[in-house]
Amino acid sequence: MLRPLAMLTLALSTSACFMTGSVEHFRSTALPRAAFDLDCPEAQLQAAELGGSGGIGVSGCGKKAVYVFAAGAGWVNNTDGGKKR
Prior knowledge:
By secondary structure, the chain is α+β, with helices and mostly antiparallel strands. It has helices at about 5-20, 20-30, 30-40, and strands at about 45-50, 55-60, 65-70, 75. The chain has one domain (about 5-75).
C-alpha cells in the first residue's frame, strides 16, 4: 500500500503532466468528442489553454465549449450543452 506522501507525490506529478501538455493531450485524445459535441469537423476546431484553470477552450463552426480533465473520466465537456454563443 502506498504511503500518503508517495500518493501525494504521484498525484502532483500526474497532474503536472496534464498541465504542461494539456492542449496536445486534448487534441490527441478528445478532439473527436469535441467535433461530435459541437457538430463541427475536427479540421475546423481550434483548441487553446484557458489560463491556469487547466481547462481547454474549443471553438469552431460558430460554437464554443470548455473541457476539463477529470481523473478516471478523461476530458469532460464543462459547458451548458455546447450551446451556440
